[in-house]
Write a structure and sequence with these properties.
Length: 114
């Protein structure tokens, strides 16, 4: 498999090469967006990243990961905290004991800056 990096522009979801480069008629590609122009969007994508990758792949099978959920503010995370599953007290104590045992018995980590 060979790789080629091309400078392109996106307009209305269509890829346009910049400069004298031409795009192949058919290819699989990875897209890195360097800067996005302000979009007039409903805020809801037409399809997921996985669906777009399946279209590129053609077979419907893909090894891509779905993007993480939308970022949350500290206040939103604080509101979610009470509803998260927590360790039972005995497991929490065992976990804390494991951490203390590791701190006491393992050598200290060397700083990458030293």
């Amino acid at each position: 498999m060979s790789y080629k990096t091309l400078a392109v522009e996106l307009e209305n979801g269509v890829v346009h090469p910049t400069g004298s480069e031409t795009l192949p008629s058919k290819a699989q590609a990875l897209l890195t967006i360097l800067a996005a122009a302000p979009a007039e969007s409903s805020g809801t994508p037409d399809r997921s990243l996985g669906e777009a990758a399946q279209e590129l792949n053609g077979s419907g099978a893909t090894n891509t990961l779905e993007p993480a959920s939308v970022a949350k503010t500290g206040a939103e995370l604080a509101a979610l905290w009470p509803n998260l599953l927590k360790l039972p007290p005995d497991e929490a104590r065992a976990f804390a004991d494991d951490i203390e045992d590791s701190r006491a018995n393992l050598p200290p980590l060397k700083s990458a800056w030293d």
